[in-house]
Structures are given as structure tokens and as C-alpha cells.
Amino acid sequence: MASLNKRRMLFFTTSPRTPFKMIPEIELLGNNFSGQKWDKRTQVDFIELLSQEGFFNGNGSKYNLDFSARDRINRAPKALGFVSLNPTIELTEVGKLFVTSKRKEEILLRQLLKFQFPSPFHTQSTQENSDFWVKPYLEILRLIYHFGTLSFDEIMLFGLQMISYKMFDDIVQKIEDFRIEKIKYKGKYKQLKASIQEHIILRLFDEEIKSGKIKTRESNEKSIRKFILTKSSNMRDYTDACFRYLRSTGIVNVSQRGRSLSIATEKIPDVEFILSTVERNPIFIDDEKKYTEILYNSTLPILYTDNEEVLIQKLTEYTNMSSSEICELPFQEKKECLFEAIEDKKQNILNQQIANIKDYKQYDDIMNTFDDIEKKNVLDIPLMLEWNTWRAMTMLDGGFVKANLKFDDNGVPMSTAQGNMADIFCDYEEYGLTVEVTTASGQKQYEMESEPVSRHLAKYKKETGKDAYCLFIAPKINEACIAHFFMLHKMNIAFYGGKSVIVPIDINTFRKMLTDSYKVDYQPNPKQVKSLFEYSLEIAEKSDNEVEWYTKVTEKALNWLTV
Fold first, then answer.
1. Which residues have a Cβ under 8 Å from the Cβ of 67 and sit 6 or more positions away?
2. What pLDDT, on a 0 to 100 scale, did the predictor assign at position 123?
3. % helix / strand / coil in the chain, to the nearest 5?
4. Between vectors from CA 30 to CA 25 and to CA 35, what angle results, nearest 5°?
5. CA distance 143 to 218
6. 3-class SS at 424?
7. Which regions of the chain are under pLDDT 70?
8. Is 469 exposed, middle or buried (0-12, 13-18, 19+ CB in 10 A)?
């Protein structure tokens, strides 16, 4: 069990970083380890099995595989009630629904609202002297609703201090004071933020600092400077996790450039219902049986759309069904109909976006977004890079291009896909193209991306029965990846469906390809796209080494529309 005794701030699960990444992992756990004891043997077996799956990038800790398994399962999956590890491994009722249900956002929302400190999973030494007394996601949601818009820094600096919901009014005042101080401050904002953050850390961890207990787990260095840097980094990570998990419920919007959260307009009644009905006090903090009975219950807490009158009203708004037709439907069918209606609305929004993109109406915004990504002026760089690359590929040529992103009800990117497939699929009828995007660099790029990229391409070939190629895009291409992809051009591997034609290009080269397509007075066609990959295969056979091949392929990409 996790202890709260040395905690001074709220913390949120950072593993996995995106909640929907849990789905294939807990499904793998349930399918292969149900009924077994969660011990070192099963933990090692699980991480070894997980490392073979296409949805997992990496191989686990080289020297501590059982820790890697606990890192994936004992954190979010267990804490949010998707898996039970005692007495044996089982997917809970909500865990099974999270895997199978279409309404995953609703399931996630219920579980986040039940997450609490303390709990039987997060203990304190004495209840009489309890400091933690809060449902973190519920109270952060309340802060967002109170202010209308809440920035990343405001949650990081002040929201994380709310270890008890009884501190809510005090935190509100601190944020109000901070906003006034920002206006008055004459220097650079980053300096103000750093100064306030350092003051907060020194105050909250005053006891540890005075007693000299400032060595961090990540480093042997024992200094106040290193201690503050580590705590600052932890605060960023926890705030980022809070943003990602709340955003994945669909009830909040995120401003990537403004780095803030707000309640989605159409979800305001849902949030008002939650804030007025969900109990703020933690429950059954020392009774695991009673606590898990609530945690594993897929119908709790009650949500706004659990009210039949609300469902009827929303179905009237979203569908052409008459009131009598709606009333005749069983309750769960009403929920399914509403889900499908919202999905149809979302698809119509995306279709209009695609039409605007293909007309090059979004060209300037796409290029400016690449600039913002490069300057790190967006909140979620991997998500924005994947989304913007999808838009770019849609604009680039005449194929049918599909992003494996999760979009919210208004067609705004919400999170990256759960894995086990390429980031983007391009269907050109006679052949296909997968597109993989990564922000990873150096050796990490090779370790995380090289094998999954070829596996995703092979999966796409098998599922479509078409010839297919892959475009691999990164800010900078690692030399090991270049060598690996060059080698795959030459090797006929049955597991990968023959030769794997994977062309790596950096973002600047890709942007030049976009500019070229924008400048010509016609829309590039699938044959012109295909010619890049045919050239790559041809030149790989003639090149003496991977450096020569990569240089020539890059030159071809930079002039891809030149006859």
C-alpha cells in the first residue's frame, strides 16, 4: 500500500501518462493471469509478455522487471479500480467495462470521482492526525468550474497544495492573489513562477530540509538546489497527469497554447450535477472491503445522464426521434442512442475539418502549429504533433487519411490512441501508407520506435491485403533508426510481410514537402506519393551503406514533386 506520510502535496498517477493506454494492458493481464497470485513471478512474466505487444514501447526495466510490472498495474489500474490484485489477479466489473464499452469516457469519469486520499490503498499513520482528506480530481474540477479557466501553472502551484477539500477557499484566494501579482509584476513571468514555486517547496518541506533529509531517490546528490529541482519536476509531472486524465473524460476543454483547462460548454450541467451531488468526504478509508465495493461498482457515482429525463431531453436535441419513440426505449438503449448520436455529430465536424484542410484553408495554421511545437508553445507536444501531422497528410494529397487519435465531441484532439497500430493510416486504394510520429530522440528513439514501427506496418499489410509503406517522422532521425530501416529494405522477413519500406524524414523535410504541395497549382496524387517509397527501395539496393541511402532519400523528399 502507498503511504501518504511523507507527502506534502497532491499527486496523480503518471503511469500510464494517458489513461486509455491502460486498456490493452489490463486486457492482456486479465486474459493471461486471471486467478493467479500477483507476485514476482507473475510480474516478470507479465512485463515480458507486455514487451512483445505492439501497443507497448519498451522492454521494462532491464534489471528490475517486476518493478516495471508494478509500475504499470499497481498505479492507475489498481488505484482507479480497474484491476483487483488481492487475493488473486482479476479484472473488476469496471475494468471489464473499460475494455469493452463504447462509453469509456463515462467509465473513467466515475472512477476519477471516487479516487481519494486517504484510502485503503493510500494510508496515513494515524487517522486522528490526518492531513489528507480529499478527492483530488473532484476538487480540481471544482476549482476549474469556480474560475471558468484554470491554467497549468495555477494547478501546479496552488491546486496541488489542496490536500484537504476544507482548504478550497484558501486555495481560491491564493490563485486570486497570484493573478493580481502577475499583473503587477514587472519582470519576466518565468522568474515570478520559479520564485513562487521555490518558496512553496521550501515552506512545505521545511521539516525535511532542516533535518537534512533532502537526498532524492533519483540522485545521490544531497543539496537544497537539487531537492528543489526534483520537487519542481515532480509538480510538473503530477499536474500534467491531472490534465491528461481529466481531459480524457471529455468534460473539460484544454487550450494547448494557453495551457489551461475549462469546462466544455455542453458539459456544464453535467459538472454542476457532479459538484452538487458527489460526496466530498473520503469514505471507508480503513475498510478495504467496503471501499472496493464502491470503487468496483460501475454505476457509482450517479451522473447527470443517469437521469432518464435528461437522456430524453438530450436525445430530443441530438436526434430526429419523436418523444414517444424515445420514451419507448429501455434506459440502456437510450444511453447507446445518445452515444451514437454524439459520435455522428463528431464525425460530421471532422468531415468538415477534412474538407477545409483539403482546400488548403488550414495551411497557415498547420505550419504555425509546427512552429509552436518546435518552440514548445503547446501543452501536449506528442498529441499536437500527431494531430498536426494528420492534418498535414490530409492536405498533402488525395488519399483517405485516418488518425488514430481520440477526439472529443467537438472534433478536438483529446489523447493519442491506445496503441497496437500506426499513428496514421493513408488509404490510396491500390496501396496503403502508415505514418508514425515521435518526439523521441537519440537512442530512446531507436529503442521505443524501431521494432513497433515495422510491426505496425506488417499488421496493416495483413489486415488490408495491400502493398504498404511507412513514413517515419521525427524532429531528428537517430542514426540507429536510419540503419535499422535501411536494413529492413533489404531483408525479406515473413513476419513483417516481406521487405519493410520505411522512409524516415525529419520534420523540416516534411514541412518542405507540404510547402511544395501548397505552391503547385494542382493536388499531388497517390502516384507521386508512391514514387518516394519506390525510389527508397530502389536506392537501398544500390547504396553501399545507410548514410548514402538516407542522404539520397532525403534529397528526393525535398524535391518530391519535381519530375
1. 61
2. 82
3. 55, 10, 30
4. 145
5. 32
6. strand
7. 1, 54, 57-63, 125-130, 216-220, 397-398, 417-419, 563
8. buried
Long-range contacts of 299-307 (CB under 8 A, 24+ apart): 300/110, 300/114, 301/110, 301/113, 301/114, 301/274, 301/277, 302/277, 303/106, 303/109, 303/110, 303/270, 303/273, 303/274, 304/269, 304/270, 304/273, 304/274, 305/106, 305/270, 305/335, 305/338
CB 157 within 8 A of CB 200: yes
- Tens digit of pLDDT for each residue in 441-468? 988 898 888 888 999 999 999 999 999 9
- C-alpha pair distances (Å), 475 with each of 304, 426, 443: 44, 21, 14
What does DSSP say about strands 260-263 and 413-416: parallel, antiparallel, or unpaired?
A: unpaired
pLDDT digits (tens, 9 = 90+) for 311-336: 999 999 999 999 899 999 999 999 99
Q: What local confidence, expressed as pLDDT, does residue 128 receive?
A: 41
* Structure letter (DSSP) for residue 474: E
362's grid cell: 488550414
SS3 category, 83: strand
* Residue 427: strand pairing partners: 400, 432
Closest CA to 376 of 236, 238, 226: 236
> Whole-angstrom Cα distance, residue 93 to residue 81?
9
What pLDDT does 313 receive? Answer: 93
Question: How confident is the model at residue 560, as a pLDDT?
Answer: 95
Q: What interhelical angle do 507-519 and 381-396 show, nearest 10?
A: 30
At residue 75, what is the residue type? R
* Best CA proximity match to 159, nearest among 136, 131, 178, 176: 136
Beta 467-474 vs 502-506: how paired, if at all?
A: parallel
**For residue 403, what is the DSSP state?**
E
Show the CA angle centred on residue 247, arms to residues 245 and 251, nearest 5°.
120
- How far apart CA 465 and CA 462 sit, in angstroms, is 5
pLDDT number for residue 428: 93
Provide the whole-model pTM.
0.92
Query: Are 504 and 474 in contact, with CB atoms under 8 Å apart?
Result: yes
Question: What is the SS3 assignment for 405?
Answer: strand
And the C-alpha cell for 316? 430530443
Q: Which amino acid is at 303?
A: L
Residue that is written with C-alpha cell 452515444 in the block: 339
Burial of 234 (0-12, 13-18, 19+ CB in 10 A): middle
Residue of 150, 225, 237, 149 whose CA lies nearest to 194: 225
- In a 10 Å sphere around its CB, with 0-12 CB exposed, 13-18 middle and 19+ buried, how is residue 405 labelled? middle
Q: What are the backbone dihedrals phi and psi of residue 165, each rounded to the nearest 5 degrees, phi first? A: -65, -20
- Taking alpha carbons only, the member of 529, 250, 234 closest to residue 399 is 529
Q: How many residues would you count in the chain?
A: 563
Residues 6+ apart with CB under 8 A from 387: 403, 405, 413
With CA atoms as reference, report the closest residue to 242 among 157, 141, 368: 141
Q: Which three cell numbers stand for residue 213?
A: 533529509
The three cell numbers of residue 408 are: 472529443
Euclidean distance between CA atoms 140 and 161, whole angstroms:
11
